[in-house]
Amino acid sequence: MKAQIPLYSQIQQYVLEQIQTGALRPGDQVPPERKLADLFNVSRITAKNAIIGLVAEGYLFRHRGKGTFVSDQEAPAQAAQNAYASGIGAAAVGSEARAAIVAAAGALRAEARSGKPRRVGMIMPWMEFRYQSLLVSGVEYELSRRDCHLVFKRVDEQNGEEQSTLQQLLELPVDGLIIVASRSDFIHDALLRLLLEKFPIVFVEKYFRDYKVHAVHCDTEKVGYMMGEYLIRAGKRKVGYVSYPADYTAGVKERLFGFQSAAMAEGIPLVHLSLSLSVSPAIVTGMNQLHHQPVPAEIFDFLDSHPDLEAIATVDAHIAQFVGRACRQRGRQMTIVSCDEPSFAAECVMPEAYVDQSPVEMGIAAAELILDVMEQRQSEASIRRVEPKLVTLK
């Protein structure tokens, strides 16, 4: 099956063809981005991104306050003319001819960049620092190995920062996007438009029921199952579960489901709502993780209300540390298992085990996939799954 040409590439091809045929000559002004957006029925951001790309490649130049004009540069013009003379022209409208245009334009863009690395934008909400840093490290490692730059932006979704951050990255511009877990499966208009326009995007730990997308994720339901299975097989029956609200991310909800599924599989009653605690995600937001925070009062209340608890499973390593510190301060013996590798903390009951989501491996997989999409080696929607692993610390 032929890969569809991204709409921003179609705009670039259109402008190049105007130059090739002489409809636009050196010094001529190209149509405004607004007119190009209307002509191709795309967003202004997409049109602007296409024009910025041609400016970067030397085909066009900008004059502040006046507009964008055709460059008087022989090399790009001659390369475009050679492509056109080879039969890759505006009159060739078949799918194979259009694919050839893409290949030629891609070659010209690569040559015009003179070896400049491509840029991939990465958007991520506030998350537990260790998991986040390992995930970013995996992405950066693979992109650097493939001569690409990473532009990283962290957002606070509650303040509606994702859409504005998306626009900022596109205006740089970037050649592709990696978007990490955000709340719910809602797609805002700006992101939906990019998906429809086939802009290279890979989602990490984020799923959509109604859209086919490129994605990388760990089996988070299995993560929850493995935590529950570990505690039950250790003979624990009075088990608590501490998490963020179920609607925080899809992964949080799936871990709880997996945890309950393990109880059912072992013939144990489901964890009652009274044994499940949701803490505010504010504890991982902003600078909070950089300072020694006091244990949230609700965790102390949870322990005090359940003196017979034998074990607690936590949704991430940051919450595990709070639970461990609370247990030490209350003098409670507790078996703790967490999702993700915990960091050492003084005066803390450390987890006996954790489920490793392999964030470095996930980051590398995300970088490999976005490059495949950008280079049009992967056109069909692709889901790459990383399997979790149980690690015991005793």
From TrEMBL:
Keywords: DNA-binding, Repressor, Transcription, Transcription regulation. SUPFAM superfamilies: Periplasmic binding protein-like I, Winged helix' DNA-binding domain. Residues 5-73 form the HTH gntR-type domain. GO terms for molecular function: DNA-binding transcription factor activity; transcription cis-regulatory region binding. The keyword Transcription regulation applies. CDD domains: PBP1_LacI_sugar_binding-like (cd06267), WHTH_GntR (cd07377). InterPro entries: Peripla_BP/Lac1_sug-bd_dom, Peripla_BP_I, Tscrpt_reg_HTH_GntR, WH-like_DNA-bd_sf, WH_DNA-bd_sf. The keyword Zinc does not apply. PANTHER family: LACI-RELATED TRANSCRIPTIONAL REPRESSOR, RIBOSE OPERON REPRESSOR. This is GntR family transcriptional regulator.
